[in-house]
Amino acid sequence: MQTEEMRGSNPSAARECRDERLAQCLVLVAHGDREAFAALYTALFTQVLAVIQRVVRDHAQSEEVAQEVMVEVWASAGRYRPGRGSVGGWVTTIARRRAVDRARHYEARVRRERREADLARSPAHDSVAECVERVLEQEGVRRSLAVLTPLQAEAIRLAFYEGRSYREVAERLGVPLGTAKTRIRDGLARLRQDLDR
Asked: In this predicted model, which residue has the larger pLDDT, 14 or 136?
């Protein structure tokens, strides 16, 4: 058996000794030993934080994720299997997975916020489709206006395309107010019949 002095001079032996101590701590942690967890925390936190910072980049978030990792180690210590690797490797795997999850969550949030900002900046309607629809509608109305008498068509054009009142239509056409109203009413009735076909 090697002495402490021999282990100190042999890095491989020192690593094995550390791994053994960490594995023993983890067994105790699985049974709820807080002192063992404190020792494990002290031994691994810096390593965990470094792994996370390589992925997350933000120091405050990295510390938060590192704390989450250590809580997960406390909660899942009983699942560690020594034959599958060292305690440090097991904890590092948990840290890397958590860091990637956090980075993905952050990226998804940034993409979602960008989409929402783009939607807020873009019009609430599709102006191209609306324009095409309006042109087709106007074309349909123009074709329908052809079924009207020239007097009815002129009265409707003044009232609806130019937005004139009944009185203004009558003045513009030089007819009595009642005549202007009749032309518009009769013209609209004919348009409705034509559009319903």
From this structure: 14
Please return the burial class of 40, using the count of CB atoms within 10 Å of its CB with bins 0-12, 13-18 and 19+. Answer: buried
Q: Which residues contact 173 (CB under 8 A, 6 or more apart)?
A: 151, 154, 155, 158, 179, 180, 183
How does DSSP classify residue 5?
Answer: H
- The domain made up of 127-196 is a member of CATH 2.130.10.10: no
Structure tokens that stand for 121 in this block: 């900046």
CATH topology of domain 4-121: Rna Polymerase Sigma Factor; Chain: A (1.10.1740)
Domain ranges in the chain are: 4-121, 127-196
pLDDT tens column, 34-82: 999 999 999 999 999 999 999 998 899 999 999 999 999 999 998 988 8
When the pLDDT of each residue in the chain is averaged and rounded to a whole number, the result is: 83
Q: Which amino acid type is present at position 137? A: E
Q: Identify which of 39, 60, 33, 63 has the alpha carbon closest to the alpha carbon of residue 51.
A: 63
Q: Closest by alpha carbon to 48, among 69, 75, 64?
A: 69
CA distance 160 to 84: 82
